[in-house]
């Protein structure tokens, strides 16, 4: 169980942090160096104190030995240099009080400088991780295939990209400071052992006990943290969902009820945060009284013993304090890592999922449409469901205007989704001039198909940018012309800033018909070879619908158009109609032919 978790953690670390390995190792080295400097200056206290007490400098502890040797080396160098300046400078150096006292703060300053560097590198890789991971996952999420995206909840992706990734960066920060603590601890322990191994041994045993007890508390907070990540996602979902439906909510007069439901979420979140923070603080605040208690006990036991030495005792105490502090901060870093772990896992999960659900492009061929498009015995069902489309076969000639009618739920949108390659048929083929459309490069395919869904998607931006829609190859002229074909220019020119008018969130400043015409202009601006409208006008008033119908009528002969409609009036100008029912094609013919047949499905619907 534990082993599996460790394995999982290592894999995740490798996946998300692997790129920053070198920097992390560099940090560990800097941390080690910093610890070395600090402990060196502390060990210098021993000879300083002994000098102050008028005794021979005591050279207990490896580091003060090293310093002493370093001084000896400098003194040895003195006659080797002939430069007057250097000789003079070196000439003053001696292993004495003044120089030792100067060296102690100097080492501390050097250590601080090192730590600034350390935190700079730390922040730099933390922010780099955040930036790179966010960009990568956003791109991958956008490139995922439709069946996966369809299942995503509003707000979850945003939460993961913004919040979970930030928390994962903090986890990396925790990891880095853990490295710092461990490397400093390592140095301190060596120094402490070289001064007094008994005291060090006891200190370490006590430290380990504290550590283990703290770990136990930490396990308990893990549970809260996990629930918290889930909650954060739920909250993001709740807010996003309800704000996007605010008009309906207001109309129904349920704002307060919604606020109450939201409030409950926030309350839960607060409870978790309190419990978690309490546990955390119990652990961290215990450490300093414990270390004092420990020092008192060591003093009480040892001060009467004949080889008790105050200098050594003071230096040891300082180092013990440092050891405790580092155990404590290591503990905290571990705790942080624990807190941020679930966010980290959630980022990892997202990446695994988007990687698994990348939209595949099997196609190699270019898009060529000269003659006909054909559905051949196409069968499709949603996972675990009855077939929605069952043996659909029909052909569309280039330049034709074909209407597809059928009642709600008859499979019209599914048909379009298959055509757009959002889904793939379980059997049968869609063929363009003898080529299975799956063999055509996906980007090519979609570029040449103009698709208009029922609900328009507009950006809170200018009309011009909504028509351009990230296609930089379009000129101002293209945009104007497509707006003209879409019957949109008249109303656009009446707006205060014409094409540069900002249309508000989802185009709230426009009417349904106007929005739809801008969407049509966007689609047409790309000069599609095939245009497909999925009930694009079904929610419009007659006048708006007539304007769009007229626009489509004008495309006749140049662009192949498939119009899906619920209302028969929309497609009376089609060259040919296809009536879909229960996943099968019920009848086909010209509108006139079908209207003549008194028992036709089409006739029945038209009269209703
Ligand atoms: N993503 C989906 N998962 C499962 N079933 C779906 C999904 N989308 C649509 N359906 C079902 O497929 C059938 C056809 O839906 P659809 O193609 O949207 O019909 P239409 O556009 O003609 O109203 C309906 O019964 C609908 O419930
Ligand atoms: Mg539909």
Automatic annotation (TrEMBL):
One of its GO terms (molecular function) is ABC-type transporter activity. GO terms for cellular component: plasma membrane. It holds the Pfam family ABC_tran. The keyword Nucleotide-binding applies. Keywords: ATP-binding, Membrane, Nucleotide-binding, Transmembrane, Transmembrane helix. This is ABC transporter. It comes from Candidatus Giovannonibacteria bacterium RIFCSPHIGHO2_02_43_16. It is a multi-pass membrane protein. Its main location: membrane.
